[in-house]
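Quick one: sequence plus zinc ion SMILES, need structure tokens.
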Amino acid sequence: MSDTEIRLFFFLGCLGVLVILELFMPYNRATTKTRPFKRWLNHFSLSIISVLLTKLLLPVGLVGAAIYFQSNGLGLFNLLNLTGWFAAIAGVIVLDFVIYWQHRLFHTSPLLWRLHRLHHIDPNVDVTTAVRFHPVEIVISLGIKVVVVFTLGIPPESVVLFEIVLSSLALFNHSNIQMPDKIERIVRFFLITPSVHRIHHSVIHEESQKNFGFSVPYWDQLFGTYATSSRQAKDQFQMGVEDTVNTNENLLTLLKDALRS
Ligand SMILES: [Zn+2]
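Reply:
Sure thing.
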């Protein structure tokens, strides 16, 4: 199995399980009922455009780049002779740390926010929102990751592991599921749960400046951006961006949202 096949296997597996859970234990029943197919088509189209664009720009992929850097002894890890499981785990942690700060940057930079806004103007967040990103944001994110993998010499194993873990957990924390409270409170110690990440999608601006992590809650806790409660009532929780009306029209409208002032 190639790394692409392994990643696709995990992605489709998690997607399938979470779609079923959304049917049986939805957080917002209206979201699962409001003919999601058009949204889903838009979201997967965005994802396919992003994959094609990144394949065009970096045909070997991030893993291929990591293999090249490693075989040429490039990067800090290789210079320090860091190898094996220690290097692989350290690489995953570094990449996750970078993604946390990248996410914050996409919120604080007005120019980058225009791209990231597409992810946030979705008022009906569900598992497919995890792939709802502007293709240009995906390209910039790839560029950042290439620089990090190159300068630190992060091993290819870390890249594969990180991509699988991040995409699986992003699907999980965007899913429209309501976990039983007792279980949720335990899982919350280790992972960003759907109810925690939902606060990041709150229509209230200050709340959208919380919970930037996509995997573990520790970066948010360390840098003071962690929140587990919202000012909004749980049964009337509104997601999206203030002053944005309907946003799930067609693919072109979504792509052109970055040009809106
Ligand atoms: Zn965000």
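Residues 3-185 form one domain. The mean pLDDT is 90.
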